[in-house]
UniProtKB/TrEMBL annotation:
One annotated GO molecular function: DNA binding
Domain of life: Bacteria
InterPro entries documented for this protein: Cro/C1-type_HTH, Lambda_DNA-bd_dom_sf, MLTR_LBD
Protein name as catalogued: XRE family transcriptional regulator
Residue ranges that the Swiss-Prot or TrEMBL entry lists as coiled coil: none
Domain HTH cro/C1-type, residue spans: 33-81
Length: 290
């Protein structure tokens, strides 16, 4: 571990980021060139004291999980993230692990979208990052572990996961989830991550087995969905998708489909964060999740 080089790199990357790039206000009394240490700590989910010790070269070796959180907080590129791992004495994450970390460019686009709900997903339906409007609308689903990372797995194994959408859309959404997973399985033929997920879903859910046997294939790129929010009611949105060149990550943007939906999203921003149960699903029919 190269403590001095790591400290210098972290200080310089922190100084290079403008608060607006990460959705923070750039007030008139700000004296720091970039982010404050407490802001990095908040974005990375760690203590300010640990950020201070890292930047002063006094820390113990950070874990790979902590480095991943720092990479997201500092909006590091893939090359910068690998460099961070090397300085900390770790091998960079393998390709599959990197695919589960939201790309820096997509994170910046989340920030730029402002009040428009948007999120980054893997092709298997893991929600990798959300902006605040998306969290307000659908809850925070970035901290699930194991198979619960996958929206399809939650949908088919946890009845509470379906509460975010109206019952009359459940069958269509289930079919879209399975059809999109079929497309991923074809594109990543032989990938044990994909085949393992499919086998566990087949074992866990009769509904999944029924739909998987129909061999429907469809990559969802645009759609219209209804969200049932506990505080503002029904919100009808149009879902538009941007795909990375390797088709491993998606940026999903949710725009109000009518004036009523626009008013309810504005009301939700005023009301603030709603507490969501742990089983609440991600957005219906997100690419990679249906």
């Amino acid at each position: 571990m190269e403590r001095d080089q790591l400290a210098d790199f972290l200080r310089r990357r922190r100084a290079a980021i403008r608060p607006a790039e990460v959705g923070l206000a750039d007030g008139p009394r700000r004296r720091t060139a970039g982010l404050r240490r407490e802001e990095v700590a908040m974005l990375a989910g760690m203590s300010v004291d640990y950020v201070v010790r890292l930047e002063q070269g006094r820390s113990s070796q950070p874990s790979t999980q902590l480095l991943g959180a720092l990479a997201r907080a500092l909006r590091l590129s893939d090359d910068e993230r690998d460099h961070l791992f090397h300085l900390a004495g770790h091998r960079p994450s393998p390709a599959e692990a990197v695919a589960r970390v939201a790309r820096a460019g997509l994170i910046r686009m989340l920030d730029l979208l402002g009040d428009t709900p948007a999120l980054v997903l893997s092709d298997l339906g893991e929600i990798l990052a959300k902006n605040r409007p998306a969290v307000l609308l659908t809850g925070d689903h970035t901290r699930f572990s194991g198979d619960r990372r996958y929206t399809a797995f939650r949908w088919f194994t946890d009845p509470a996961a379906r509460a975010i959408g109206p019952p009359d859309e459940h069958e269509r959404h289930a079919r879209q989830l399975v059809a999109d997973l079929r497309a991923v399985a074809g594109r990543r033929s032989g990938d044990p991550t994909v085949t393992g997920l499919v086998e566990r879903l087949r074992a866990a859910s009769a509904d999944f087995r029924r739909l998987w046997a129909e061999h429907e294939v469809e990559v969802r790129r645009a759609d219209r969905k209804t969200f049932l929010h506990p505080r503002v009611g029904r919100v009808l949105v149009d879902c538009e998708t941007l795909v990375t060149p390797d088709q491993r990550q998606y940026l999903l943007v949710l725009t109000p489909a009518n004036a009523e939906a626009r008013e309810r999203l504005e009301l939700l921003r005023v009301l603030g964060t709603e507490e969501f149960p742990a089983g609440t699903p991600g957005p219906p029919n997100a690419p990679g999740t249906g």
